[in-house]
Design brief:
By secondary structure, the protein is an all-alpha fold. Helix content is 81%, strand content 0%. Helix 1 runs parallel beside helix 6, helix 2 packs parallel to helix 4 and helix 2 crosses helix 8. The protein is globular, with a radius of gyration of 21 Å. It starts with 10 loop residues before the first helix and ends with a helix.
Length: 417
C-alpha cells in the first residue's frame, strides 16, 4: 500500500507490485497447506498402524481405492477449474480436505478409515492443476513462472518440516486422534484465506453453454497431450514412479516398526525426526538441481532420482536394523519425491496452453492415481501373498523401469518438440 503523500506509482511499477503480492500470497498458502498436510499425514500414518491396527495389505489397499475415486473425479475437477473458477476450485478443495482430515481422527475401523481417505483423495482433485494454473495466469510472466514454482516447492519442504515438528510434538504431548482433528479444522480454515486473499483477474469464466464448453476444453486438453510425445513420456514416468512411491510410503512405517524401531518415546517422535531429515535433504536437492530442472538436464535428473529410488527400496527391503531402513526412508523423501514431482509439474506446465492448463495438469494427476491403483494393487497382493520385503522389492523394480524409460535417448522428432 502506498504511503500518504507519496508519488503515484507508474502502471509498470503497480503491475510489478501486484505480481509480487500474488506470488507472496501463493507461497504463503503453499507453506501453510504443507504444514498441515504433512504434519497430519505423519500422525495419521502412525495412527493407522498403531491405533487402528491396519495390515500392510489394508494400508496399500486404502491408497488404491482412494486413487480410483480420485481418478474418476480428477478431469471433471480440472475442467471445472478451466471453465468456472480456479480460485473457487481451491476453496472447495480446502473444505473437503479439512473435513476428511478431521473425521479420520474420529474413527478407527477399516471401512470408515477407507471412506475418510477416499474423501481426502477427492479433495486433492480440485487442487491439482488449479493451483499451478491460478498462479501462472495471475502472474502472467512466462519467463518467471518456473522460478516461482521452484520457490513454491521449497516452501512446501520448509512447511512440511514445520508441520512434522509442530504436529508431531502436539501428538506426543496430547493424543494422536486429537492432533488429527485439530489439523483438519485448521486445514478447513484455509478456505477462508483463499476466498479473501486470492484474486482472479486474468481468468475469464465461461458464462454460457458450460457443458459444451467443458467438453470442448476436455477435448482440447486431450488433443494437446496426444500430440506431445514429451508430455506422454512424463505421463508414463509419473505412472511408474508414483505407483512405487505411494506404495512404499504406506509400507515404510510398518517395515521400520518390524525392524525394531523403538516404541519409546512415541513412534511419532522417531518418524518426525526422519521426516525432517528427509525434508532437509530435499531442500538441498532442489537447491542443487533447481537451476536445471526445467532445461535439457531434466530427463537425466529424473532418471537419477529413480535410481535413488531403486537403491533406497533395496536398502529398506534388505535391512536388518532400523538404522539402515531409516537411511533408505530419507533417500526417498529427500531425493526421489521432491525432484520427480517438481520436474513433472514444470515439464507439463511449459508444454500446455492457458485455456487447458488445469485440465492438462489433471491428466498428469490421473496418471499418478492410475499408478497408485494398478501398481498399488499389485504390490498389495505381493505383500499379502508373500512378505513385506518382497513388496518393497517390487517398488524397486518400478523405480528401475522409470530410470530406463527416462534414460532412453529421444528420437529426432521428440528432440524437436
Amino acid at each position: 500500500m502506498q504511503e500518504p503523500g507519496a508519488r503515484p506509482l507508474s502502471p509498470e511499477s503497480r503491475l510489478k507490485e501486484d505480481q509480487a503480492t500474488v506470488v507472496t500470497v501463493f507461497i504463503r498458502w503453499t507453506w501453510m497447506r504443507a504444514v498441515l498436510h504433512n504434519g497430519w499425514w505423519l500422525v495419521t500414518s502412525v495412527y493407522l498402524v498403531v491405533d487402528a491396527g491396519l495390515s500392510p495389505a489394508q494400508l496399500v489397499l486404502i491408497g488404491s481405492v482412494q486413487s480410483v475415486f480420485a481418478l474418476l473425479c480428477e478431469v471433471p475437477a480440472g475442467v471445472f477449474a478451466d471453465t468456472i473458477s480456479r480460485k473457487w476450485s481451491l476453496v472447495i478443495s480446502q473444505v473437503l480436505m479439512g473435513t476428511a482430515m478431521l473425521t479420520t481422527g474420529l474413527v478407527s475401523s477399516f471401512p470408515l478409515l477407507l471412506a475418510t481417505q477416499v474423501l481426502w483423495g477427492i479433495s486433492w482433485t480440485f487442487a491439482s492443476g488449479s493451483d499451478v494454473a491460478w498462479i501462472t495466469d495471475e502472474l502472467d510472466q512466462p519467463g518467471s513462472i518456473n522460478a516461482v514454482l521452484a520457490r513454491a516447492a521449497r516452501a512446501q519442504l520448509t512447511g512440511a518440516a514445520t508441520g512434522l515438528i509442530v504436529l508431531g510434538l502436539l501428538a506426543w504431548a496430547t493424543r494422536r486422534d486429537v492432533t488429527i482433528v485439530v489439523a483438519g479444522l485448521a486445514m478447513m480454515s484455509l478456505a477462508l484465506y483463499i476466498a479473501l486473499r486470492f484474486t482472479e483477474q486474468r481468468f475469464v469464466p465461461v458464462r454460457t453453454a458450460r457443458w459444451s464448453s467443458s467438453w470442448t476444453t476436455f477435448r482440447r486438453g486431450l488433443t494437446l497431450v496426444r500430440r506431445s510425445r514429451e508430455i506422454l513420456l512424463i505421463f508414463a514416468a509419473t505412472f511408474l514412479v508414483n505407483g512405487a512411491s505411494d506404495a512404499a510410503g504406506r509400507l515404510t512405517q510398518k517395515q521400520l516398526l518390524d525392524l525394531g524401531l523403538p516404541s519409546e518415546p512415541d513412534p511419532v517422535i522417531w518418524f518426525t525426526g526422519l521426516g525432517v531429515a528427509g525434508l532437509i535433504v530435499g531442500a538441498l536437492t532442489l537447491r542443487v538441481f533447481g537451476r536445471r530442472i526445467d532445461g535439457d538436464h531434466a530427463r537425466t535428473d529424473y532418471a537419477w532420482a529413480a535410481v535413488a529410488g531403486v537403491v533406497s527400496m533395496l536398502m529398506l527391503a534388505l535391512a536388518r536394523d532400523p538404522v539402515v531402513g531409516a537411511i533408505a526412508v530419507v533417500l526417498v523423501a529427500g531425493i526421489v519425491t521432491p525432484l520427480t514431482r517438481v520436474i513433472s509439474t514444470i515439464w507439463v506446465n511449459a508444454r500446455t496452453t492457458a485455456d487447458v492448463r488445469a485440465t492438462t495438469h489433471s491428466f498428469l494427476a490421473q496418471l499418478e492415481y492410475l499408478g497408485e491403483i494398478v501398481c498399488g494393487l499389485g504390490i498389495a497382493a505381493i505383500a499379502r501373498l508373500t512378505n513385506l520385503p518382497l513388496a518393497l522389492g517390487a517398488c524397486a523394480v518400478l523405480f528401475a523401469a522409470t530410470a530406463v524409460l527416462m534414460k532412453r535417448q529421444p528420437t529426432r522428432d521428440e528432440a524437436a518438440l
